[in-house]
Design a protein that fits this description.
A hairpin with a 6-residue loop joins strand 3 and strand 4 (35-37). It contains two helices and 13 strands, in the order E-E-E-E-E-E-E-E-E-E-E-E-E-H-H. By secondary structure, the protein is mainly beta. Bound molecules: zinc ion. Zinc ion binds next to loops.
């Protein structure tokens, strides 16, 4: 059993899973040594952002609206019942849309969970093998080709 006061995040730079203290916000990835944001982010009002990036979980609550140009989220994007996301492009390991969640925008994820009653207004959805999830940051191309069996073995 993992320690109770830690959580698992997926590095948005190198697509490696690692554990962080529950309250950690920014730290250095133990695999690629980049400083990355690891905090879980909860949107519970109306939020406009150019770009939102974290290795943790992005959660959009009931009646919240997130309008973001680009979402790069490691572990998961979860849109709760009545939450709404409008984005140009989103990448995450997992996208979960609960009933009556609303989504607009392209999404690339290894897992999609769409409950009955969720509303997809627009967007192109791509299922991506987890090992290929990290887009090439400058100089990081070698990391993408590295196999990531840990990603595939991890239970959702
Ligand atoms: Zn990393």
């Amino acid at each position: 059993m993992p320690p109770a006061d830690t959580r698992t995040v997926l590095c948005v730079c190198c697509a490696s899973w690692f554990r962080v203290p529950e309250s950690a916000m920014v730290l250095t990835c133990p695999c690629c040594y980049k400083r990355v944001r690891v905090e879980d982010i909860t949107i519970d009002t109306v939020d406009h952002r150019h770009r939102l990036e974290t290795c943790g979980v992005l959660r959009v609550r009931r009646r919240a609206i997130l309008n973001a140009g680009e979402l790069r989220v490691g572990a998961a994007i979860i849109v709760e019942d009545g939450g709404r996301v409008q984005t140009r492009t989103a990448t995450s390991f997992r996208l979960q849309l609960h009933a009556r969640a609303q989504w607009a925008g392209d999404c690339e994820a290894a897992y999609l969970t769409i409950d009955p009653g969720a509303i997809i207004e627009s967007g192109r959805f791509t299922i991506t093998p987890p090992a290929q999830m990290a887009p090439p940051a400058s100089g990081a191309l070698e990391i993408i080709t590295r196999p990531s069996p840990a990603l595939i073995a991890r239970p959702a």
